[in-house]
Amino acid sequence: MQALQLNSEQQQQLLDLARWAIASRLGEVIEQPRVNLPDETVACFVTLHKGGQLRGCIGCLEPQYPLVQGVINYARAAAFDDPRFPEVRLDELDKIELDISILSPLESVSAQRADLIESLRPGVDGVVLESGGRRATFLPQVWQELPAVELFLKHLLRKGGWSHWPPEAKAYRYQVVHYQDD
Fold it and tell me: Per-residue pLDDT averaged across 6-17, rounded?
């Protein structure tokens, strides 16, 4: 099953909505953009970059909200609630680049390290690894920074707080359609 696809007008509406969500929380008085978007409940992430560097990323792996509400919630959370970064300030808003990822359903795959290495498609698959109450994911876009499967998984382990391959791990892969500012 694929992730929800949008036409170019809807893509721009979605990006405008995410920017509005952040700006309105900063006290900017601007009208909420009119949107004509599907009411489908989706799993999505909103990622912020500034100068090519990660500035925030929040979302969900399983569908929780209709598309519009999810993008509003996660845009604000990425800007103000990502514990890795200070809150976005009004004076940097015009420098923030937005990337919205809509996820396909999670597909369970073997969590045996060798099997996972064999099954992953660099640049295509996002990965979720979970074990012992911890869960870590990388969106497919992370392959751009970590193109080798071993390196990708090493950083995913670090993100999840594991020093070695976790016993009784579960693994999932997914794909995304993502829309970003030009």
Answer: 92
In 3-state terms, what secondary structure has residue 121?
coil
Residue 58 pLDDT greater than 80, yes or no:
yes
What one-character DSSP code corresponds to residue 94?
G
Give tens-digit pLDDT for 25-56: 998 777 888 888 889 999 999 999 999 999 99
DSSP state letters, 1-23:
-PPPP--HHHHHHHHHHHHHHHH
Residue 112 DSSP class: S
For residue 143 the two structure tokens come to 């392959």
Is the CB of residue 44 less than 8 Å from the CB of residue 102?
Answer: yes
Q: Say if residue 1's pLDDT is above 70.
A: no
Model confidence, pTM? 0.91
26: Cβ contacts below 8 Å, ≥ 6 apart: 88, 89, 90, 93
Query: By C-alpha distance, which of 3, 142, 159, 2 is closest to 70?
Result: 3
Q: Do the bridges between strand 107-109 and strand 53-59 make them parallel or antiparallel, or are there none, so unpaired?
A: unpaired
- The 3 state secondary structure assigned to 130-155 is EECCEEEEECHHHHHCCCCHHHHHHH
The tokens for 42 are 């989706």
31-35 LR contacts (CB < 8 Å, sep 24+): 35/10, 35/68
